[in-house]
């Protein structure tokens, strides 16, 4: 009995490890808040950079919590609220002030649509999280959606560009859609072949080093397309199986 208690104590992570993912989450909130402050000073490129940093921290907090097995209900709730602020409220206000404000009421509606769909996406994720596969997200994750707006600011896309109203519509749809997007949560580096891992890292580094913002945007757009691709691939595979069964009978 005493041996079991000692073993449990050894396995139990230290308190500092529990707090660390939440510190990263709070860091993500700060980055979103700072992006908003920068946008009020019309420092659009800096605002975009801070949103990207928020997205990086958001990726790290969840992965670290899973690796250290320190996921808590408090951490999950905090992460969800952080996402609502840094990737919902902040990008929608920045998008409106940067571009959609010139469209009047239509701009207000488009901005509100983006924000609403982002919040719905988060609420649905919280409800369905225990029942769906960890390998995929249902609908485009809100950080990936906000990253497009951020990269557009960094790349200095003209404020009157039609990219912004159309992207607000498309991103809103993708977030609330049922398209499957890879989560990479079950991707373990340990199980990957060393040669493949090394080549992938080198290739990714070379692509990003060429022109970081543009490279990240291309990777992001590729990720956007992966949802429809996986959706239709699954449908075609299902039809093929049904067709083969029909032939056998």
Q: Could you describe the 3D structure shown?
A:
With 249 residues, the protein is mainly alpha-helical. It has a domain at 11-182: Four Helix Bundle (Hemerythrin (Met), subunit A), CATH 1.20.120.1760. The chain is built from nine helices and two strands. It has helices at residues 2-11, 15-40, 44-67, 73-98, 105-128, 142-154, 163-176, 194-210, 212-248; strands at residues 136-138, 180-182. It has a two-stranded antiparallel sheet. The longest helix is centred in the last third of the chain and has 37 residues, at 212-248.
List the helices and strands and how they pair.
Blueprint: H1 2-11, H2 15-40, H3 44-67, H4 73-98, H5 105-128, E1 136-138, H6 142-154, H7 163-176, E2 180-182, H8 194-210, H9 212-248
Antiparallel strand pairs: 1-2
